[in-house]
Amino acid sequence: MTKVFVRPRPLAAAEERDAVVCYNWEHEGRALVVPRLPLSSQRFVSFAGVLPPGNEAAYDQAVRPLLSPVLAGGTACCFAYGHTNSGKTHTIFGYGREIGLFERAIRGIFDARDVAEWGMQVRFYELYNGKVFDLMDARRPGFVREDADGGINVRSETVVGAQGEVMTQGLRAHYGESADDVIAVIQDAMRHRAQGTSELHHQSSRSHAVLELELVTREIAEARSELELTKAMVVPAGKARDDLYIAIQSKLYVRGDDGKYAPSGASVPVEESNRLSDLEAKRHLETATADSTAMIATVSSSLNNLKKAHDTLKYAALVAEPRSTQGK
């Protein structure tokens, strides 16, 4: 189940004369009451809470709990959903002097690590006008592919080798061993995002940005980089996690004295590849928890945007409500 939080945005300078919509949170009934809506639609009872305006308090309530499953070897996801000018970019990436949730999460992870053997690998891309662009590689075009198992994989451009072989490449990744290093790289990549002028400011995002943060050792990060071009020829792209590619390919390739990889002559049965995939999936199911995904529904407090806010809340309620209870 995804925990869904609502975050009302305060009025902007251009909205000072607008009437204000008050989003009231009833702690005892855990219900969100939105005045001015029709009686049949003004009460939402499936949300986890209402986040305050400041990003620091919002981080403590919605994002900090996600760090534990990540540090335990699992996965977590946090995303913002809302209408235009509702504060999505401000919430996740910050604005002006307001630090975004992503930076607070990165610093929280590095502060909590108990050993210095691992760092963080970053991938950062955006979806804009139906296309994918790698923000870590100066907006190099990418592609979204679906594998035989229905998994979605975002890849970079297809490369044709000297012998005519076709190879797929992953997005450019950066490995950092400090919070400052990782944050600086992400902030630099932000320059490549598609932006435009909105009713409220001149730096309104025009795309859906996806930031992937993964905890790995330097050895794995370097091995991924060196094996990237051979990966697609060993296991179909997207068949398993990158760590499994490394485990499988360690039997297929050996590293010579010159530091380069060469075929070892060994083979890995398909059954073993599938077994490794099953074990990895089981591990993530065991380490993931019901609290490992947080959705932040951002809405405007201006009465002029009430219809848009209402639509956002209705969709957010569907996400928050257990599927077994929908339609009852």
UniProtKB/TrEMBL annotation:
Q: Which GO terms describe its cellular component?
A: kinesin complex; microtubule
UniProt cross-references to Gene3D superfamilies, sorted A to Z: Kinesin motor domain (3.40.850.10)
InterPro entries in UniProt: Kinesin-like_fam (IPR027640), Kinesin_motor_dom (IPR001752), Kinesin_motor_dom_sf (IPR036961), P-loop_NTPase (IPR027417)
Q: Would I find Nucleotide-binding among this entry's keywords?
A: yes
One annotated GO molecular function is: microtubule binding
Matching entries from SUPFAM superfamilies are given as: P-loop containing nucleoside triphosphate hydrolases (SSF52540)
Give the Kinesin motor domain ranges: 1-328
Entry-linked Pfam families? Kinesin
Read off the SMART domains from this record.
Answer: KISc
Q: Which UniProt keywords apply?
A: ATP-binding, Motor protein, Nucleotide-binding
Where ATP binds, per the record, is at: G82, H83, T84, N85, S86, G87, K88, T89
Q: Which first-to-last residue range defines the signal peptide?
A: none
Any GO BP annotation: microtubule-based movement
Q: Which family does it belong to?
A: Belongs to the TRAFAC class myosin-kinesin ATPase superfamily. Kinesin family.
What is this protein identified as?
Kinesin motor domain-containing protein
- Source organism per UniProt: Pythium insidiosum
Query: What is this organism's lineage?
Result: Eukaryota, Sar, Stramenopiles, Oomycota, Peronosporomycetes
